[in-house]
Input
Amino acid sequence: MTGADRLRRWHTHSHGLVDRGHRDRGQSGAEYAAMVGVVSLVVAAIVGLSVPTDEATGLKSAVCRILHPLSGAEACSSGDYAGDGDGGGDDGGDGGGGPGDPFVPNGDPFEPARCLLSQDQTKTTVVIQILFIKISSSETVKLQQWSDGTVTLERVKETGGGVTASISAGIPGLKDWGGSAKLSGTFLAGSGSGGQWLFNGNKSGDPQADLAANLADAQQFTEYLKAQDNCNSRPAGPRSSELGMICGYHAGKKKPDLPPERAPDVDITKTSTEASGNVSFGGKFKSNGKGGKDAGKSDGPKDLGKISGEVLSGTMTEDVVVMRTNTGVNAGKITFVYTFTVKGTAGAVGLATGERMQQVAVTYDAAAYDQEEKDGAAHHPEKLVITTSQEAGDGGGVKVEAGANAGPVTIDVGGGGGSTESKIHTESAELILDNDGDSTAVEDWLRGNGDPASNPLPSPSDAAEVPGPDASPLERLLHDKGKLSKLDYNANTDWWNASLGIGFGISAGQFTLGFKLFGIDITHEQKTQTITGNPTYATGPKSGGARPWVEWKNCTQTKPIPT
Output
């Protein structure tokens, strides 16, 4: 199933969401090859489910190393590794923007108004599992700096529930070493709420100076929000109201002189599906099979527990988010955001990571959309944004698990942490649909109407090329009118994880079937990304029809400020 096929399936489904140590002696190369085969099958299945074959080449670094562990990092980074579905090469083409590229003055209608210079994001996720039921909650805070001198602060809390199941297989020849591979699947449905504050009160005409002043206001406002949260979490008592007012008064003193514009008030509905696989190695603890009244007799050694570390993992997620905006500049709008993500990590101590994301966001007038749903009429989207990104990096870190067995019941305790440095390449195509013809073309594409497209999910780089004779209406529309841009970022991610699980399992040969009686998993991640390289955008079609990539002046005129 291609990305566009899933997109159309999701678009139809989402309409109902609007309202709601040692190595064994004799260990042979064949056994190692069998282990590699298990890993490849697990992770390849994840990759195959998530993106078309030609798109899978965008998964550099870790995913390459997981699928082709004997090829080496150099082969992976060049795309020149065995099994590359379309012979290597880059995904998305040449970014341009180097010496000799034409410059255009500001005012080009194809130049986007602003770009994201940097982003600091903190996310804490707590997942509780009872039998096959999974309950999750998360809080995400983003502080973003923009090239026009403005700053946004966003905080979103999400809760969700769903079901999960998994199956694991021991790796032949390594069973005493604790080698195993696991494939799991999860379905989650949830909702969220949040707010976004826009800091744009400092307007001196110098975007760099404005950015510094607005950032200071945003950071001060963040301290106010923390103080207010402390007030709201005070325990109840005989003088709780009075003490709460005093606490609120002192918290209010932390507000900046220029308060932010609060926008928007958003109702959020989200559904997610996830498939994941991992491979771990460690050691098992066994009894001697003797003891008690049966001392002197032996039924063979019994498994008592294990210690293992995760060395390879892959995850595929598909998310649908529906956002209905009630206040602010986008009041009265409803946006559907469809996201496909596949990621992988490799390494027990030194971690290599890779991630590929495709996202489509479609915006409608909420009132018109609701009425069209009621009447069974066609919808008329007002805006389309297609975004792709791929991230590759490495760093230090470890994730380990220790377990103890008491018959079929197991108790597992896990944890880990680390830090990675990565590079992110993003591309975006934005279309304002200001007439019925363009709106219909986008809606038809979403619903799969008309002739099949030669490129079901065109990327922004694709849109800058001359459309072929069999190009779809959407491809032509993106080429003729889309605002196309490319950005690169350096990113640093610090994370830690802690987990506890009590489970029940039954083994049959190398396979283990089981479930958790209870589990809790807490993950905290802090990620900072800063723009780098030469930001570019595609100017209007030139002779021959191609759209050259040029310097994005509205993006390069302002430099991000370290936080």
About this structure: DSSP finds eleven helices and 14 strands in the chain. The longest strand covers residues 511-538. The longest helix spans residues 207-232. The radius of gyration is 26 Å.
